What we know:
Blueprint: H1 3-33, H2 39-46, H3 54-67, H4 71-78, H5 80-100, H6 104-132, H7 138-166, H8 171-174, H9 176-190, H10 204-225, H11 231-252, H12 268-285, H13 287-298, H14 303-320, H15 324-351, H16 360-385, H17 394-426, H18 436-452, H19 466-469
Amino acid sequence: MSDSPTAAARSHDSTLIVMLVAAAYFMENLDGTIIATALPQMAHSFGVHPVDLSIGITSYLLTLAVFIPISGWAADRFGVRNVFTAALLVFTAASVACGMTDGLVSFTAARVVQGIGGAMMVPVGRLAVLRATPKDGLMRAIAFVTWPGLVAPVIGPPLGGFITTYSSWRWIFYINLPLGLIGIVLAWRFIRTAGASERRPFDVIGFVLCGLSGTAVMYAMELLGRVDTHWTQALAFLAVGLVAGAAALFHVRRTAHPVIDLSALRVKTFAASMAGGSLFRVSISAVPFLLPLMFQLGFGMNAFRSGLLTLAVFAGNLSMKIVSTQVMRRYGFRSVLLVNGVLAALSLAAMSLLTPETPYWIIVAVLFASGLVRSLQFGAINTLSFADVPKPQMSGASTLSSTVQQLTIGMGVALGAIALRIAAWLHGHGAQSVTNADFSVAFLLVSAVGFASIFDVFGLDARAGAHVSGHRAPRTGAIR
Length: 480
């Protein structure tokens, strides 16, 4: 009898932890997309061009990518409860600082600190869920934690547009304050302390080299997209990033405890998902940046209406989740990635045909269709990534995948800005002003990157990942 209340209490605590981590995941993903519709108003406050504010998105996403690899080490060394609570505190305080800034430099600095908190918050929170949840409830718990990451991009643009239109963009960040404070109290109360910490060595050299490489490459792309940057400056940062990346690659292959384990790249399906999948993420991640700007600067819409239209893309994302498993089982990963990859790239090219005179229902239909195909492609790539990875390599593969995914999302935003700058150059006018024609060219350039993402798929066998998808394919070799 005495065990029953204890078991009930543990089940209650586990449920609260799952809900807490889901809320943290929601906050992290929301802050990656919510400012997209507020960029013109924020640029006016800071006295800069709206395209230059892409650094406000890329700096946050880049910081996530740089610091995610050390989240597991920090949790083992200092304890899950301590790290998760501290991460919530840092994220919340940085959110308030973002709302209080009056310049692009200070805003970017606050976003970097916010990204550090987010990088520790979600991976460590997921670890807390794994430790607190019984095995029979693990699948349900992980699904519950994952869904807010899908919902946040859905409501981010319209919520940001609503706040910006009817209040101030600063409240986009201030709304994190009550959520963060509640989360800090609940985390300290319900996440149990673990036993002795694990003192495995930290790969300082690998962390510095990987961080320097990612930061330099991302900043180079950011500079290429800004209107006041010389090409030589951007190329110098790109060179530094490539050299640091080569040094990091040399180091992690020769150290016993690398910050990022690359051994899973020997698995063909994982390597293909990382290469082609990264190009696909880059192309798709440019859309949340380009669409709101096109609707506001090109079509003359307010932030709220722009956000509502952008909502159609993410509505398509969620709708595809209902049938994506059946589609992959019916046709297999290789066929889905090839055919659907082409459709996803074509959907990006179709956005170049939109004009201020296009009826709303056609705009919504194009965006919704794009959301459907991109969701299926994401699902296929993410599932195939780990289909053949051995269990001993799963942790390293997961860390590498999360890091690359965050980097490519940030690169997508930078790609959108670069595409606009190239379009302005092709049309013979300064990048300080953008036209509808510039957005058309930008979407065509982005779609070209999307087309390039499918070439790695040709080398896959028709039966690749069949033991995961359940697809029954004839025994045919890969197309050479």
